[in-house]
């Protein structure tokens, strides 16, 4: 089967336009589909995230998603070069995943990770 099922996070946003601008202009995602005031789809390679408009500004502060794979070290280097605010260090955590994270402008947590052995020999 070539069309495998996958999981796509659907995260809250109190301001779809601000989310669009951050993910497109700061993180390098492309906008997928038509512009809407209450829903947003962004994609970067195989990473896809959906956003729904929420009037509850506290929801993004307790929402997160995990992005995993061998592209993660290059993403950290790129985000560092772009001067992304709230970018954490890229380090091996106690659960043996090399990770970094970003909070978007509304507080949604994006955690990026890969197993250290997946990137042996990489910078």
UniProtKB/TrEMBL annotation:
<feature type="domain" description="VOC">
    <location>
        <begin position="5"/>
        <end position="115"/>
    </location>
</feature>
<comment type="similarity">
    <text>Belongs to the bleomycin resistance protein family.</text>
</comment>
<protein>
    <recommendedName>
        <fullName>Bleomycin resistance protein</fullName>
    </recommendedName>
</protein>
<dbReference type="InterPro" id="IPR053863">
    <property type="entry name" value="Glyoxy/Ble-like_N"/>
</dbReference>
<keyword id="KW-0046">Antibiotic resistance</keyword>
<dbReference type="Pfam" id="PF22677">
    <property type="entry name" value="Ble-like_N"/>
</dbReference>
<dbReference type="InterPro" id="IPR037523">
    <property type="entry name" value="VOC_core"/>
</dbReference>
<dbReference type="InterPro" id="IPR000335">
    <property type="entry name" value="Bleomycin-R"/>
</dbReference>
<dbReference type="InterPro" id="IPR029068">
    <property type="entry name" value="Glyas_Bleomycin-R_OHBP_Dase"/>
</dbReference>
